[in-house]
Structures are given as C-alpha cells and as structure tokens.
Amino acid sequence: MKEIYFNADAGYLEGVVRGYRDGLITKPQYSNLTQCETMDDLKLQLATTDYAPFLQNEPSPISTSTLSARCTDALVAEFQYLQQNSAEPISKFLEYITYGYMIDNVVLLITGTLHERDTHDLLEKCHPLGFFDTMPALCVATTVQDLYNTVMVDSPLAGYFRECLSAEDLNELNIEIIRNTLYKAYLEDFYNYCMACGEPTASIMSEILNFESDRRTVNITINSFGTELSKDDRSKLYPRLGNMYPEAQTRLARVDDMDQVKAILEQYSEYKTMLLGVNLNASSGGVGGNELSLEDRFFIKEVDLNKEAFEQQFHLGVFYAWLRLKEQEIRNIVWVAECISQQQKDKINNYTPIY
Amino acid sequence: MPFSRSWGQAHGRAKTTSIFRSEIMSLVQLYIPSDVARFTVAQLGELGLIQFRDLNGEVSAFQRSFVNDVRRFDEIERKLRYLRSQIERNDVDIYDFLNEDFVRASRGPRDIDDMEEKINAHENRVLKLTAAYKNLQLKHLELLENKHVLQEVSSLFSEIAGRQQTANAQGAGRSSAGGSLSGGQDNVPLLGRTDSLSRHSIGSLDAARAGDVGFDVEAGGPVIGHDINVGFITGVISRDRISTLERVLWRSLRGNMFLNYVDIEEPINDPKLDEPVYKSAFIVFAHGESLRDRATKITEALGATLYHVDSNAERRQEELIETMSRLDDLQQILENNNAARINELTSVSEQINTWFTVVRKEKAIYHMLNLFNYDANRNCLIAEGWCATNDIPAIQSALYLATEDAGSNVPTVLQELRTTKEPPTFVRTNKFTDGFQNIVDAYGVPKAGEVNPGLFTCITFPFLFALMFGDLGHGFLMTLCAALLCIYEKKLVWLAKDESLRMFYTGRYIILLMGIFSMFTGFLYNDIFSRALGIFSSGWTWPTDKGGEGVTVEATKLNHTYPIGIDPAWHHAGNSLLFTNSYKMKMSIVLGVIHMTLGICLQVPNALYFKKRINILHVFIPQIIFLFSIFGYLLFAIIFKWCTDWYARDASGELTHISPPSLLNMLIYMFLSPGSVNESEKMFRGQAVLQTFLLLLALVCVPWMLLVKPLILRREHQKIISEGYGRISSHVRVSSEGDDIGGAIVVAEQEEMEEDDFDFADIMINQTIHTIEFCLNSISNTASYLRLWALSLAHAQLSEVLWTMTFLPTLKMSGSFQPVAIMGGFAVWFVLTFSILIGMEGLSAFLHALRLHWVEFNNKFYDGTGVKFEPFSFKAILDEVEE
C-alpha cells in the first residue's frame, strides 16, 4: 500500500535524484579525463559534466584544492536542493544523512583546537553539509564534559554523545574514541530509523548500513593495532550491527595482526571474493598496477551496493546511495587531478569507476 | 560507377530550389592554406550555408589542433562574464550597440590581440578597483561597527547609571555591602527597565554588581569594578546568531556573565558576502580574566567582530568623535573609488556586446577548425562538408573574399566529391513556409530527394483546420490577430524569446492562413458567431399567415437556390441539424478520400526519382485501384445522390424517384450480399453488376499488393547471383589527384556501403504487414476524416450555446437596465468567445488537423527518415547563446 502514496511525497525528489544519478561521470568520460595532460584539459573535459557551472568562472590554471572545493559545492548545491524541496519523511531521512558529516566536523574542530590551529581556517575546512549553528563554539572546549555541556547539548548529536562522557580529557586517542563512539551511536540510530521506515527502504538501507558498519569494524580493528587502546575498549567501539555482529566482532576484538583479520573476513562469502589478491599493507591508491588496498576494495564494494539501490523504486535509499556515489565521484576526480598535477600518470587509473 | 548513384553530381537533373523536394546536396572538400583558414571559416560562418563533417572523430576534444585557441577564447569569455557581472551589480546600463565593422568577418589576428589586450587591461583595472573598494569597504565596515558599538555602549552605561541611582535610592548601602552575590531583588528594576527600553539582556551577574561597574565607570574610577574583577567585551555579530551566542556563552561560562545587545537599525553592507546584513551590537560582562578570554574566543568563533571600547565616558566620547570624522573621510574616498569604478565599467559597457559577439564567433571558428584534417606537410587544412549544390558559387565567392581578407595569394580550393553517403536534408524555407515545414519536420525530416509534404501542408493544413473551425466571425478575429503578428513581426521579435508565446509567433503565418480559410468555410457554412448571414435571397420562404409559440410551420421552396453556401433559412429550422450533419458528414468523406488519394499519388514522383518502377506498377496501382473501387465508388454515390432531386414529380404528380437510399447500407450490403441490390435502394441501372465488379477488383488487388513485389525482387536477386555478381562492400576514396596543389593527398575513408543482404522472409513479412495495414487503414482512415464533421458540429453548437446563454437574453430584456445588461452580456460573451471558441477550440482543431496530416496523409507515401541540414552559421550560434 505504501507504494501507492510514495510518489505523492517523494515522486518528484526521486525523479530528481535519479536524474542526478544519470549525470554521474561514466567510464568513457573517465577515460577522457585520464588522458588529460594538464589541469586545463581536465577543466575542459569537466565542462561537459554537471560540474560545469561551478567551474566555468574559475580562472585558469585551476588547482586541485579549488577543483575539489568546487566539486563539493556542486554536491552540496544538489543536496540542498533536495532538502529544500523535501517533506516528511524524506526531510528527516536527509537530515539523518547530514549527521555523519556533523560528526566529522566536530572531530575536525576538536582535533584542530587541540593542535592550536586557527579557528577560521578550521571552519572553512568543515563540510558544509555538517554545519550546525553552535558548531563554531567547539573551539573553546577543553574537556569532554565541557564539550557536551557547552555545544553538543542542543545539537542533533547530543543523544549520541552520552556514551563518550566517560572520557576525561581530550587527547588524540580520546578524540578517536569519541569519533567512533559517535559514529557507532549514529549508525545504530540511523539503522533503527530506517527499519521503522518499513519495506523496501528498510531492506535496502540495512544492506548498505550493515556494510558500512562492517567496514568501520574492520577499520577500527586495523587502526587499533599498536595503540594503547585496550581490547575491551576496542570491542566497545564496534557498531552493534552488520553482518559480522556479534560473532565475528568478538573475535575481531581479540586479533593482533592483519592476517588474523583476513582469516575472519574470509569466512563471509561477501568479503571473501573482495579479499582476493588484496595487498593488505598497501595504502589507498596503491603502488600502481592492479594491486589495490583493502580500502579501495571496500570502496568498490560500496559503489556496487549503492548502485544496486537504484534498481528498486519506492524507497528512500536512493538519496543516500546517490550521495555516496557522488562523493566517490568527487574522490575520483580529485585523484585524477592529483595524478595529473603531480605527474604520476602511472597511477591515474586507480580510481573507482561507477558507471 | 554504375553501382553507386551520385548525390553530388546531379548532372542533367534540374537543380530546382523549391520545397517540393529538398535541395540537391554536394559533398565538398576544401583545401584551405592554414594562414587563410581562420578567415575562410569566418566568411563561411557569416554565410551559413555549409555543414562541416567531423574528420577527427577518433581524436578526443583536447588533442585537437586548435584546442589552445578555444581555451584562449574561453578565458576571454570568462573575463567578459566577470566584467558583465560587475556591470550588472553596479547597475550600469549595457549599451545595445554592436560595432558592425569589428563584428564583420574580416578582422585579423592583430585585431583580436588588441581586443584581448583591452579586455585584459579593463579586467585588471576593474579587479584592482574592486579589490581596493572591498578593502575600503572593510575599513568602512569596521569604523561603522565601531561607531555603533560606541553609541550603544554609551547609552547602555548611562542607562545603568540611571538605574544605579534608583537602586541607591531604594536600598542605600546595599551595594557598599560588598556586592552581595544574592542581590536578587535588584534584578527586578534592571529587568523592568530593560523591558521598557526594549533592550535585551541576559545574565546572572547580579544587577547590583553590574550597577557597581556602571557607577564606577561613570565616576571615572578604576576601569574595572573596585573589588571584583568584572570586565567587558564589546562587538558586533549578525542578528540571527545572537541567540546562539547567548546560549553558548551562558552554558560555557556557567551563567557567570551578563550580555546585553542592541539591534543596529540599518543593514550593514558586508563586503565579504556582498549583501546587506542585519547586525547587532553586544556587550558581555564577565568575571575574571580567564572567563573573558573564553568569551572572546567563543564570540570570535561564532563570527563576531570585537571592538575595544574604553570604559571612560569622556574617552569614549572622544573616540566616537574621531571615528565619526574618520568615517566621513572614508566615505569620501569610497565615493571617489566608486565613481572611478563606475567610470571604468561604463567604458566597458559600451563595448561588451561587441566583444561578446566577437569572442563567441571566434570560439565557434576554432571549434570548426578542430573538425578539419590538418596536413602538416603542405601546411593546409582539409575540410569536408555538405552544402546545397546551388550554393557552391556563393561559397566560392566567400572563399575568394576570405583570401582577400587574409591578403594571401594562395586560394582555397573547393572540390566536389562523389559519394554514396546519404546527404542531410536541406529544405530551403522562407518565413512563410518555415512554420509549415516545422509541422512536417516534427513528424520526420524528409529523406534527401523524397517528396516533401511541406509543400502541400501549406494549403491543406489550414484548409482542414478551417473545415473544423468554420465560422466567419471567429475566423475574422483569428485573421486579425495573426495579421497584426505578421505586420509588426519585426517589432515583435521579442515574443520568440518567451517559451509559451514563441509558438504563436513562429506559427503566425499558419494562423493567418487558418484564419482566412476559416472565414471562407464560415461563409460557406453561413455561420458568423453562430448567426446566419443573409447576403442573397433565400431559396425558402416562411409562411406569414400561421405561426405563434409552439406551432410548427413548414417553409415552402422557391424556384431558385441560394447561390453559394448553405441557405440561411436552414439556420432556425427544426431539422437544421439533420441537414448540416448529413451534408458535413458526406463532405468529410469526399475531402478525406481526395486527400488520401493525393497522398497515394505522391508515391509516383518518389518512385520516379528513386528509379523504382516496381513501386509504381505493384504498389501504387493496386493501392489506388483498391481505394477507388471501394471509396471512390462511395464518392461517386455521394455526388450522385447530391445531384439527384429525390422529390421531383413528373407531370402526373408521381414521384419519379424512389425515396433517397442510405449510402451506408449500400456500402455494407456491397460486401454482405454482392450481386444484388434491394429494389427500394437502387440508385441506377446496373448498380449490382458494377458493385460486384468493383468488389472483385478490390479483392484482386490484395494478393497483388501482397505477393508481386517480393516475388519480383527475389527473381532479380537470383538472377544477379546466378550471373555471378557480388556486392562491393567498401571503397577507398582517392581525392585531389592532379589539382593545383599537386601530388596526391589521399584521404582514405572507410565508407560502409549499405549492407544489401537479401532476406526474402524479411521482405515478405514487411510486405504482409504493409498490405494488411493499407487495407485496414483505407477504412479506418476514411472514418477518421469524419472528425472534420464532428469538430465542426461541436464548434457550431458551442458557439450557438454561448450566444443563447450569455448575449441573447440581454437583448430580450426590457427596462432601463438593458444597456448595462447588454454591455455586461457582450463582455462575457466576447471574452468566452475569444478564450474558449477561438483559443481552446482553435487548439483542438489544430491538433486534429495535425493528426490528419501526420497519420492519414503522411503514412501513404512519406518516410521521413532524413537528417536535418544544420549549417555552420554564426547567427544560429549567437541565437542559441541568447537563449
């Protein structure tokens, strides 16, 4: 029955978002991009894409950071258009999407303050989608308690913050813990919200969010090697969802090196194929050739999942999926741009194609 | 080359310029010396007669030879856009002026360089001036905000001082008790005062202490409270942030603060955002150095600008005076700077249109040059393109002009190529035929050489429309509107820019013809705003002796007929609907069959042109026989019935004829019981035999259409195979041997010949579908023309209803209100007539006429599989940018 009324609220926006999806850069366009010799060539090529209006008034030569900023502007403009035209329940869903960016911004500001960076520079680096009005005041916080009482308490993230309050002071480790705790709470909340939306949103989003939480679990595990984080604390950071919850998570909490992680992952058919030929020690981008890092594999898998979301109609997952795909596309463009500006043409093909 | 029919070399064929067929096209190759190339393309762009082919299809956009030039003009265009945005922002008028000399084709590279230099210089100056202006504005903003802060803080302090006195009067000694932290009662007067002065404050520093500060300050004592360390910070923040600031400060300082703010009335122009922003000045009192630092940090992070304000009243006054005078000075400088900027922009605005046009043209030129093949050895460019064979002389003179422009003596060489490629379709239209051709193109662009239905549409379209819209009055109004559009077409060009009005503007000649034809049919139907028009004397006369309400009278026939159109006597007759229905229904069938016959006959010129005799003998002839043996006979019967006076009596008063037969039944029984005609319905002798013969003829045509053509094609194919011939699948074109450039530049190009696989099953299936479709369509299409009757009936009835419901009652009224009622009634009637009858009914009749052309007419002969000729023309490019 829900399908009958779906288009009354979401029909227009779904049409728009599918149109945005069709505007994503395709493989032939990527191969044109990778053939570019200079940044000006790249700009010329991008003039045929949706980014054109954001790039056309930039004086040449364009730098990678401006390119990235303008591309993000394009993304933000499209997302805000969706937000402005949305009503319940989509507006709530879209709001949930922005919480992730808020968490990133909060952590960025706290870290920046810790290192005594200029507040205005930090604010400029924040993602525009994750802005909330009391956010700039984060720079005065020196303790976690302070952070919560001054700023977070009336932000949408307040509910997520409760679990972090046990930490005493702000240092690198605690910030990471805060980030992951926040994200864990956010993921679980978002997951529950999606479940409450009913089918088919629930099934589509659960697949995407399960993957997301698995990825976080693996990343937390890998990143905690060689830090002071105790194994108990580690397991507390894992989101309580995902394909690996709870059995594999309890085992992951106890491992000490990459090979053990791999052994656990290989028990899952979804991840087994993904791990084939992966270089566990390589960082993103790799050293060229076909050797891809685990992170890249995760990106590829994520792109696949998000593309699948478009195969079905009458659900809200498309909005989330589109945003993720667009973000990946911007990462790709920036990667290509970096390769061009640093003359590293041999690595230029290590982007993650979408369509 | 016997196997390929040449499009280009149409030797011995008349090169007509009419819209019966599309233009004969030539594929031409140009050898352009590279120093003349830019001039040549510029001249050809002005001419707009040649469509270039992309010879570098496999080269990506940025690897082409002239990509740097394209980029250069992109950059110039960006600068121009920047200048234009500045011009618009500062409300400078843009001159609607084009420097024709410069826009014309013959500007040299040096002129372009000069232009670029000028634009760069202007851009630099504007950039510098704008930057300076922004800087000054920032300073101005700072001073302005400072002024506001000073003013507000002063008034705040004096207010507190005033309160202090009251407080002292109320409870003397309370403040000297050491600023008790629980001076709760004192909040009351402070808050009360605040409210009455519409000031806003928040804070828990007790009022007594705040009072102390005020007192001390006013007394010129220590800067900060005498026994407690209370200080303050002042600043300006945008108004929507103030509540956030309050909240965060309150929480962060745990309430140990006092904030007061005042909205600054007028918006302050923020140069960073380039728009006016409403701001508020605030003052925060906080206790202790560290809390003040915290407050400073928070306010700054939230985007506030802090200003130092001295706590001494006299010094504040001095500062205020100084700020004011500096503000005045700065204002002067700002105005001067602005004047200089406006001046600069004005000088740009005179040229900017010209520059835009030139830059867009130049960019288009280099885009075209990118399509050409570059021969580095000979330093020349090779271009290929389609043009109308008739236009080759014009192109050649343009090439000559270009060579002259460049001051070169090496001419551009134009050579026609033989090709088997399907050329694009170029139908040379003028402003009259353009609209009609658009109607056809919307269905399908004619294939090269195919008969273009556009020619016939020019008349049949408005005519069929008018049959449905027949009303002299409505037609007149429509003609009037269209005529205005046509007469003032130059002045009304702006209509074409509006999306919804463009339809009417581009279709103005269609509407004109539709209106004129409607007047004609309206005259024949004898309808003017649903009234009859008695120009000639009626052929009927009404009895004058009988009559009255509810009495049926019968008109008597006079011995003359109404000379043209429908007799007005029918208009009020009780059986007028019976009469007009029968008349209009038959008329629709007659015109429909004629229209379809024209469509079928147009296969003949097509077959002749494409040299396909088989299409005449085995497609056209059976089709026309089939149609005529059934519907041609119906036509004959209709006209026969019209010509017979069924009620004529002979000398003895007997009826000479049977009662009029039903033609529908006749046609049905022609199929159901061939060979016999009911005596009571027999129209003429030998009718039964004729009908049987026609039926047999039609039946013979079906297998003829179905089988003969495919079988002949198969026989021919087998003959070719048995003689051992095959098809050549591709050939290499060798060009320019022995011309004056010399040598042999070989432009080899794989040209796919149309694959000529002979598949009998395929042809057979096609032919079967075609035959079934034709036979069924001949019935359904004929019936479809009945819409002519239906819509004209609807139109007539609707206008009648409108007349009797809105206007007529007012005419029958009596009393002194009648004039007013007539005015009102007429207004309603006219507005509805115009909007519903002319607007909406017109649209619906238009759509039905469109359908009759697209479906009933075009499917008889028209392929419409061509590709439109889109010549490279500056005019088209500039028009596109305008939109």
From TrEMBL, chain A:
This protein's GO cellular component annotations are: proton-transporting V-type ATPase, V0 domain; vacuole
Any one Pfam family here would be vATP-synt_AC39
Q: Does the keyword Ion transport apply?
A: yes
Q: Which domain of life is it from?
A: Eukaryota
Q: Name one GO molecular function term.
A: proton-transporting ATPase activity, rotational mechanism
**UniProt entry keywords in alphabetical sequence:** Hydrogen ion transport, Ion transport, Transport
Looking up InterPro entries in the UniProt record yields: ATPase_csu/dsu_sf, ATPase_V0-cplx_csu/dsu, ATPase_V0-cplx_dsu, V-type_ATPase_csu/dsu, V-type_ATPase_csu/dsu_dom_3
Question: What family does this chain come from, according to its entry?
Answer: Belongs to the V-ATPase V0D/AC39 subunit family.
PANTHER family per record: VACUOLAR ATP SYNTHASE SUBUNIT AC39
Tell me the subunit arrangement. Answer: V-ATPase is a heteromultimeric enzyme made up of two complexes: the ATP-hydrolytic V1 complex and the proton translocation V0 complex.
Q: What does this protein do?
A: Subunit of the V0 complex of vacuolar(H+)-ATPase (V-ATPase), a multisubunit enzyme composed of a peripheral complex (V1) that hydrolyzes ATP and a membrane integral complex (V0) that translocates protons. V-ATPase is responsible for acidifying and maintaining the pH of intracellular compartments. This subunit is a non-integral membrane component of the membrane pore domain and is required for proper assembly of the V0 sector. Might be involved in the regulated assembly of V1 subunits onto the membrane sector or alternatively may prevent the passage of protons through V0 pores.
Protein's UniProt name = V-type proton ATPase subunit
Gene name tied to this protein: VMA6
UniProtKB/TrEMBL annotation, chain B:
Q: Does the keyword Coiled coil belong to this entry?
A: yes
InterPro entries listed in its UniProt record: V-ATPase_116kDa_su (IPR002490), V-type_ATPase_116kDa_su_euka (IPR026028)
Stretches that traverse the bilayer: 463-488, 509-526, 587-609, 616-640, 688-708, 788-808, 820-843
Specify the signal sequence span.
none
Domain of life assignment: Eukaryota
As recorded in UniProt, coiled-coil segments are 112-139
Cellular component terms (Gene Ontology): fungal-type vacuole membrane; vacuolar proton-transporting V-type ATPase, V0 domain
The molecular function GO annotations come to: ATPase binding; proton-transporting ATPase activity, rotational mechanism
What keywords appear on the UniProt entry? Answer: Coiled coil, Hydrogen ion transport, Ion transport, Membrane, Transmembrane, Transmembrane helix, Transport
- Subcellular location, in the record's words? Membrane
Please cite one Gene Ontology biological process associated with this protein: vacuolar acidification
Specify the protein's topology with respect to the membrane: Multi-pass membrane protein
Among Pfam families, the record links this protein to: V_ATPase_I
Summarizing the function annotation, the protein's role is:
Essential component of the vacuolar proton pump (V-ATPase), a multimeric enzyme that catalyzes the translocation of protons across the membranes. Required for assembly and activity of the V-ATPase.
Family under the similarity heading: Belongs to the V-ATPase 116 kDa subunit family.
UniProt protein name: V-type proton ATPase subunit a
Organism encoding this protein: Coemansia spiralis
